[in-house]
């Protein structure tokens, strides 16, 4: 039985005449953090939008936990049902809503009468915050999200993925514009995902962050995957040089 939670073969994407993704072959294993690297316009964002159901897959095959996707019926809702959660840089949080309401936004728990089960949602929210070890204002489930720090917001968004038992968590530039202390907090959340045997696809421009948490590095350039490296095979300096060489060669 394959240990891959995500398998992509022959994936292509066009936007009008622009061939945005070209014959992508990619896989992600359980308990693995894979950093997706490359310059702006390399195709990273397009790839994660296809995986998360935001954009339509036009050509190719995708398997999640061994099951081949029904491409015509695949979208964000189906992706979540299959265990794919995406955390964007903004965190996709309701600024004026409380922490606990944000955790269940769009996926509320219901009681037997069909009403939102606020008591159970609050209980689960409090348990999750203890598990995440959020401190300060982020530790209070009634705190409005607009009072949370950047690291706490990212932690909350990652926690939401954990709450709904995601098998694949996609993180899009999760440490951008955060202080060093907040960056460390987010990276520890990522390490927690790995400890829980969840797969994580990390999109980042920060090589220090990538090298700390990732097991594997996949490099994209102009719609192609042009290189792949394993952390066990190189130092951070060697990875940086290899990345420059791979992008410099072009697709």
Automatic annotation (TrEMBL):
- Is the keyword ATP-binding in the record? yes
Presence of the UniProt keyword Nucleotide-binding in the record? yes
Q: Where is the ABC transporter domain?
A: 6-247
**Which InterPro entries does this chain map to?**
AAA+_ATPase (IPR003593), ABC_carbohydrate_import_ATPase (IPR050107), ABC_transporter-like_ATP-bd (IPR003439), P-loop_NTPase (IPR027417)
Q: Which domain of life is it from?
A: Bacteria
Keywords, ordered alphabetically:
ATP-binding, Nucleotide-binding
GO-annotated molecular function: ATP binding; ATP hydrolysis activity
Against SUPFAM superfamilies, the record matches this protein to: P-loop containing nucleoside triphosphate hydrolases
- PROSITE patterns reported for this sequence: ABC_TRANSPORTER_2 (PS50893)
Protein name, as recorded: ABC transporter ATP-binding protein
